[in-house]
Amino acid sequence: FLGVMPAYSATDDALTTKLVTFYEHKKDSSVPSHQATVLLFEPSNGTLKAILDGSVITAKRTAAVSAIATKLLMPPFTEVLCILGAGVQAYSHYDIFTELFTFKEVRIWNRTKEKAVKFANSVSGPVQVCSSVQEAVTGADVIVTVTMATTPILFGDWVKPGAHINAVGASRPDWRELDDELMKNCVLFVDSREAALTESGDVILSGAEIFAELGEVVKGTKPALPEKTTVFKSLGMAVEDTVAAKFVYDSWSAGN
């Protein structure tokens, strides 16, 4: 797939387009499934100002948005972080989550155990490698799903009541990471209602009701409800790439 994600932010005086390719690898590959480039333009006249590594920006901004959701929606006492998947997004989520939050235990599961072991050996802190999803998520307070799953791998029966889940994978209308029980018994937050109802198989196929967009919680127009079991379905928005690219460009321009 080739995705084109244009966006303009008047507030940030920023105009960008992200070009992203997605290839579903049948076998493990050294080439990332997602590769991206961000083009930053001068909004007043359309001149191309910069070409940026969109893969890094995508990894960082996706994890940053998950962190915002987690800060708002996670239970008041959190001890266990669980990451399902061991690809690029697993690393970016681990980095920002362990920087912003304090967990007594971090667990990881991956379909290919070798990749999970490699992850555990390459990050800065201790990580427990789990042999099954159920083992990984049992008792976890915060769960991050960053997998290439096309059918549910995370089941409501296994999730601790009051846990918070960031569902980042399954970005097509016919793909799932979470089962119906979890989707229908959680309080569901999304980055974009419009996108979730056309792109997210987890939302579309379960028929789960969207409670709020994350932006509504940030603005204070909808409550966070951290005492409930919450799911943040992340699909990504082009404006996130725009703001991130402008931030990088401004920092570079300032000599930082």
Estimate the mean pLDDT confidence.
95
Order of helices and strands: EEEEHEHEHEHEEHEHHEHEH
Structural class: alpha/beta
- The portion of residues assigned to helices is 25-40%
Indicate the proportion of strand residues.
15-25%
Number of domains: 2
Which second-level CATH architecture of the largest domain applies? Answer: 3-Layer(aba) Sandwich
- The 3D shape can be described as globular
**Could you list the spans in which at least 5 consecutive residues all have pLDDT below 50?**
none
Number of strands: 12
How do the strands of the widest beta sheet line up side by side? 7-6-5-8-9-12-10-11
Helix count, per DSSP? 9
The radius of gyration over CA amounts to: 18 Å
Major beta-sheet overview: 8 strands, parallel
Question: What do we call the CATH homologous superfamily of the largest domain?
Answer: NAD(P)-binding Rossmann-like Domain
- Which fold name corresponds to the CATH topology of the largest domain? Rossmann fold
Kindly provide the name of the CATH class of the largest domain.
Answer: Alpha Beta
Distance between the ends: 35 Å
InterPro entries: NAD(P)-bd_dom_sf (IPR036291), ODC_Mu_crystall (IPR003462), ODC_N (IPR023401)
Subunit structure: Homodimer. Binds the thyroid hormone triiodothyronine (T3); T3 binding inhibits enzymatic activity.
Family: Belongs to the ornithine cyclodeaminase/mu-crystallin family.
Organism: Pedionomus torquatus (Plains-wanderer)
